[in-house]
Amino acid sequence: MNTERLKYKLFSAKKNLSDSLYALLEGWIVKGFFKKRDLLDLIGSYSHAKHARKQQLLTDNSGKKTLFFVFRGNQWLEHFIPLYRAFEKNHSGEVKAYFISHFYGDMKLQKYFMELYDETEMKLSRYGISPDNLFDYSEMDRYDNFPSPQMIFFSEKVNQIRFENCQRVYLPHYFLLKKKAKEGFSNIRNLDFDVMITPSKEGFFYTSEQINHHKQVVNILGGYPKSELLEHPKEQESNKIIFAPTLEKQTILSYLEEGLLDVFASMPEYHFVLKLHPSLNGGKSRIIDYIKQKTAQMKNISLDLSSAIDQLGTDSVMLIGDFGNVAAEYKVIFGKKTLYLKVPDQYEGGTDLLFRDRFAEGVCTIGELKETIKRVVSQQGNVAVESAGEACLYHFGHASDYIADEVLKLIK
Fold first, then answer.
1. 10 Å Cβ neighbour count for 86?
2. Which of 34, 89, 147, 275 could form a disulfide with 244 if both were Cys (CB 3.0 to 4.6 A apart)?
3. Domains of the chain by residue range
4. How far apart, in whole angstroms, are the C-alpha atoms of residue 34 and residue 28?
5. Are 271 and 302 in contact (CB under 8 A)?
6. Is residue 315 scored above 80 in pLDDT?
7. What is the dihedral of CA 233, 288, 277, 239, to 10 degrees?
8. How many CB atoms lie within 10 A of CB 270?
9. Residue 304 CB coordination number (10 Å)
10. What is the mean predicted confidence (pLDDT) over 259-265?
11. Beta-bridge mates of residue 168
């Protein structure tokens, strides 16, 4: 075991031990708290006026076809929002869409219900969408004549949320495949859906045979709505560099062992923002706490655990990634420079690294990182957004409008 992993294991064991009694006490408090409180009282800034507004919204749209965007984690909102806008812009007379969370019904999330609900409302507001369009799955029976959907959209496994007689549309939260996902089609193997929105062109995504592995589905070659989240990305001068690695903890620890943070700390002319995968925040993983401790005295390094890449990227100069989709998302949204860390051969072979080889400005080891950052940043100009987006995504720039038109044909 290398030194960094040993340090992490010791840190994690100590943290888990110190938290165990607190967690037990917290569990007793939360259990009693939720027994005594009415669900609607738990919703942030709830009021009777708010309930009345939402009831009126449901009533006003009662004659329309109903669509639900269903999610357990609010990090998926960025995938739904452009599509919601398309329905509102082009089909508001016949269709009404709502955001349906599953915070309260998920035992892992229940104790964070108020925080998650308020955070989701703020996210919707930030994108110009009224938070009155948000309902938790568990509060639906608190409203008169809550509509049944003709269609639901989801980007994660939500099999525990069942609606009768509706079509299930899978809107992938990625458009490139890691090697493991490409070979075993693990991202879709256990999902139940009737319609697939295929985001990327042949060679970048699953084949038709893989998509129809379980049953014959409707496959819409629709594109990737999230790429349209920023209608007019702003160009801002900045010294901010984003580091957005894989969610695999052992890989992150190997970067630390090789001196990644020391490289960043040795370049005070830049501010490095560590954008870690949301799934690393919470549960038994202590990797975020560990990195917080290690970077506490490094003034040019910070962590961001909540912002989406479209928010972080606006005033950045470059993103450093390794494999997966984040660096590619950054490229198709902003067209800015991307630099990839070299990964072990076992990760080569996915379409994520095919994209890297076509569009990244550099690939290097940790030992080469400092000089490569300087070289890439000093390069003149950025890759045009269109060259990357149009090369691999269907209907780049107008995917949401296209998808909205196509799925409505299925429920006419």
1. 21
2. 275
3. 40-224+395-409, 240-392
4. 10
5. yes
6. yes
7. 20
8. 18
9. 15
10. 96
11. 152
